[in-house]
Amino acid sequence: MDLVSNIAIGLDSALSWSNLLYAFIGCLLGTLVGVLPGLGPSATVAMLLPATYQLDPAGSLIMLAGIFYGASYGGSTTAILVNLPGEASSVVTAIDGYQMARKGRAGLALSSAACASFFAGCVATLVIAIFAPVLGRMALKFGAPEYFALMALGLIASVALARGSLVKALGMIVLGVACGLVGADRGTSALRFTFGIPELADGLNIIAVAMGMFGLGEIIFNLQTEPAQRSAMKTRLRDLWPHMKDLRAMAPAVARGTAIGGVLGLLPGGGPMLSAFSAYALEKRVSKNASEFGHGALGGVAAPEAANNAGAQMSFIPLLTLGIPSNVTMALMAGAMMMQGIQPGPTVMQEQPDLFWGLVVSMWIGNLMLVMLNLPMVGLWVKLLSIPYKYLYLAIAVFCCIGVYSLNNSPFDVYVMVVFGFVGYVLKKLGGEPAPFIMGMILGPMLEEFLRRSMQLSRGDPMIFLERPISAALLFIAAAAIIIVALPTVAKRKDAVLEEE
Amino acid sequence: MPNVLASMKKPQDFFLGLIFLGVAIVIAVYSRQYDLGTTRQMGPGYLPLVIALLLGGFGILLAARSFFGDWEPAERLGISQAVLVLGGAALFGLLVRPAGLIVAALVLIIVAGFAYRPRKRLPLLVFAVLLTAGCVIVFPWLLGQQIPVLGSWFVR
């Protein structure tokens, strides 16, 4: 039995004492940082990335995965308790979670978020274990046109749920692709847009740019729009465990959320955010008590949390089988892998099975640890949330600076962060969202490479994308997605969901 | 010109469109020095040109569209917070090698600290010292990062 022997390899690697310890430290640190308002999973991973440099490859990836899960869960805690989602994916959790907290059911909201995440994590781990080898074999058959089509679809998907106008989001993607051009061209190794600055030959560091836009840009934005009340409210945290009837009430919501997250997480550009939004929208439609949504519905917390976690986990699949990072966090993971000398892609599974399966098993262990760690420690996280923002933002700024400096031990990355902090702030004020920009920047260079190779393959004939069935299907879905999003009724409904936070 | 601007409905969209268009022009002009190649054998200048055309198109569309629809007032672009937070971070970058982490972090915290108003000076100073101490203990000492605690100005 392939599956059993694969999981045995994974257990062997993940259950060593040191790797268990790394998973635990990762979850703890991730939650600790992720729970701080304004710091989402990607900022947290970027900030804690340097802590894993010294470990061996398996250990460092296991710890990073732990940080990632911890940060996601920490972000949900903040969203529920203070209505401050750290990242787009927990925006929908905040809608009903915060309402539950205001009604004194914060404990129930937190524990059902944890249980929903855990269930979704278990299912997603199993799905990855069963299907990753199949997908990996399929990925080996992928040629340049298929990769190109998949990335185009990913970029479109990241637009689909950006706030506000479609033209702005598309423009932000193209702007991101333009920034991705800086540095040596991969195909011809010509230097582009370096403006005579030698540090730019390797391109702009994506982590420095992301930290500038999400970290510093966000701080400036928050300082201007700070709500009067930021402190965590006094909430009753007893009755932490859900009762049998709560569990029964949320079970279908969790199942639907897991299914949606599992499918949408596979898309590059999809991942947790798209999953959480779609799960919430669906739940609102099909739930028996639809009128409760927006006023503290249990399903409104459980479904997006399950989808969020399933989507987060499934987004490891495109990274590990195709080498495509499907969101900012996965790009950071890819960066960490390359720093350890591993080229993410279909070969990882064959050449380093202990690393691959160790990571898969540690995903499940990470989820288990989160539940065990978080339920008893909820009180501590609440304490942490009472740090006033006027001190908190300074700590975030210092951590961002130290984190970015440590990437290459170079002050230049700090300057890149400063510049993009300003750029991100101005663009956001004008309604340009940072997320599609970053996606464009991550996928841009790969998009160019695969476009160039496809054109060489077809001798300059663009029909190659339509002649190959897989790429034609992917491009068709992308075109359909953009038409659906552009339809006025859908656009209105999408904005309505986004406005409700 | 003023009466043209006065009929503008969405100043935010207009200025974002202008930025897109401006960047597109810079890319188009700057990338003329790169070899365009052919579609079959794309040179380093091929994609930049495509990007410039797309971005310029989106920019014009956005700017043109900003004259129609309902009036949406622009938000104020507060500059002082941006200057203090980003200036503090830039100073950190300048100081971290020559002066070291202690000085760089203190300067960053104090400069960025004034972005929040009202701000009392003494608590900020105390917080700056505590946070810097915490950073020195955690990052170079516990995590073993290669960041100088004291820079080349103090240590030979």
Automatic annotation (TrEMBL), chain A:
PANTHER family: TRICARBOXYLIC TRANSPORT PROTEIN (PTHR35342:SF5). It comes from the Bacteria. Residues 20-438 form the DUF112 domain. This is DUF112 domain-containing protein. The keyword Membrane applies. The keyword Transmembrane applies. The chain crosses the membrane at residues 20-40, 60-85, 106-132, 144-161, 166-184, 204-225, 316-334, 355-375, 387-405, 472-491. It comes from Agaricicola taiwanensis. It holds the Pfam family TctA. Keywords: Membrane, Transmembrane, Transmembrane helix.
TrEMBL record, chain B:
This is Membrane protein. The keyword GTP-binding does not apply. It comes from Agaricicola taiwanensis. Signal peptide: none annotated. Keywords: Membrane, Transmembrane, Transmembrane helix. The chain crosses the membrane at residues 14-33, 45-64, 101-117, 124-143. InterPro entries: DUF1468 (IPR009936). Residues 15-148 form the DUF1468 domain. The keyword Transmembrane applies.
